[in-house]
Amino acid sequence: MPKITELFFDCDNTLVLSEELAFEACADLANEILEKQGIPDRYTGGQLIKDFVGQNFRGMMISLQSKYKFELEQDELERYVTEEENKVIEKLEAKAQPCAGASEVLQRLYDSKKYGMAVVSSSALRRVRASIKKVGQDKYFAEDMVFSAATSLPKPTSKPDPAIYLHALEYVKKTAAETIAIEDSKSGALSAIRAGIPVIAYVGSYSSDMQEEMGKRLMELGAKILMTDWSQFDKCLKFIESGADSEGPQSSL
């Protein structure tokens, strides 16, 4: 079994508590678009999280167009994507907080020099950088080790497309078997799994009544082990490194 040498971290609600803030801004724009299309439905930030967590705004807009059978002109879509990015960054720079325990784990990993570390996100690069900078995590990741499905690829996409993970693997010159991804959402976990990367499913950012359900969903998708708190990270990492996951996934430690 290849040795694990690279760790890929999702950003939103895995390292930084950003989804709730971001989806507030997304809901305002989504509702504006629906109103212009003459569609009576409206979204709250919480409803958007439930339906589209793990997708970036572009992916959300594609899903909304499909659901409500309308089509945005490309230049109009791009204008909304830019507007959403600016609104979200403004909120993140004011209010973003780290996920409990994440920064302490990153510091320990950084000090150990045992693993390469990168952020692999669906969100726009400016947004990811703003998030990790606000919570003081930017020091753990080299500038070129922050990857965005919305920005880093020749053609913008969103998780669950595995393109951003495949791009990151190619850039760091690692195989999927040498890598572990830490993901909190269905679309994020699927993106990594489709790229062949073992996944630690983190559900600590969900409300206590949602953790069991989300954990079950992520394990059913093919995550190797479930992590409810960052204090469990070392045990989760050891579980995958030991090859124990080849005997089947483990839902708890």
UniProtKB/TrEMBL annotation:
Keywords: Carbohydrate metabolism, Magnesium, Metal-binding. SUPFAM superfamilies: HAD-like. InterPro entries: Beta-PGM-like, HAD-like_sf, HAD-SF_hydro_IA, HAD_2, HAD_sf, PGP-like_dom2. Its cofactor is Mg(2+). One of its GO terms (molecular function) is phosphatase activity. Pfam families: HAD_2. The keyword Magnesium applies. It comes from the Eukaryota. This is HAD superfamily hydrolase. It comes from Penicillium atrosanguineum.
